[in-house]
Specification:
The protein is an all-alpha fold and 210 residues long. It contains eight helices and two strands.
């Protein structure tokens, strides 16, 4: 008879998988638009990551709660309406309480609606699992997404501006790599991190087989 995992272990697995094993950016390669477009600073990267996490957790909870009532024929449309509702909420909140960040992120806040990570978790997980597990899964994926964006944003801001979260770290003698805060810098940073991430996974896999 197959052993059933304790609820605590299932919760931990669902949360931790999004942080590392199934990281949305470094493994699944999802959400590339914000990963490249708004990560020219660590502040913007964190703001976008946390906004996406809020939408992901909220929409997952609601989709899971009503999963048995949503007709299969209109499930995708329903998911998009739910996601768009929470995107509107976070858009208004950021406009009211963080206007500078809201202005910097611009249209990319509204584009959270079409982030394939968020819609994908509704279809693949929230629509099939309990509210609590859906929230745990969404939190793991959301924080994993935020972590990835923050890694990219940190590299780009350090090299492109010589600062981190707006704090100058290298002094006036530092010559910034302007390309890192321009669109090509996003590709350079993402490519480097993907290379390191996959190298580390390959190394760990090789060590297990030795």
């Amino acid at each position: 008879m197959e052993e059933i995992k304790p609820i605590e272990k299932r919760d931990s697995y669902e949360f931790l998988k999004g942080l590392w094993k199934e990281n949305p950016v470094f493994v699944a390669v999802l959400g590339m638009c914000p990963a490249l477009a708004v990560t020219n600073s660590a502040t913007n990267a964190m703001a976008m990551g946390l906004a996406s996490t809020f939408v992901l957790i909220s929409s997952s909870a609601l989709v899971s709660l009503f999963r048995k009532l949503i007709p299969k024929e209109v499930r995708i449309t329903t998911y998009i309406v739910i996601i768009a509702t929470f995107v509107t909420v976070i858009d208004f909140l950021m406009a009211a309480y963080a206007p500078d960040i809201h202005k910097a992120l611009g249209a990319f806040i509204a584009l959270i609606v079409v982030n394939c990570l968020i819609l994908g978790r509704q279809e693949a997980f929230a629509s099939k699992n309990s509210v609590w597990l859906s929230i745990v899964d969404a939190a793991g994926m959301g924080f994993g997404f935020t972590f990835a964006l923050l890694c990219i944003g940190t590299i780009r801001e350090l090299l492109g501006s010589g600062s981190l979260f707006g704090i100058n770290l290298f002094g006036s003698t530092f010559e910034p790599w302007v390309v890192m805060i321009l669109p090509p810098g996003g590709f350079f940073a993402l490519g480097t991190l993907l290379l390191l991430f996959n190298w580390w996974k390959y190394k760990r896999k090789s060590m297990r087989h030795e």
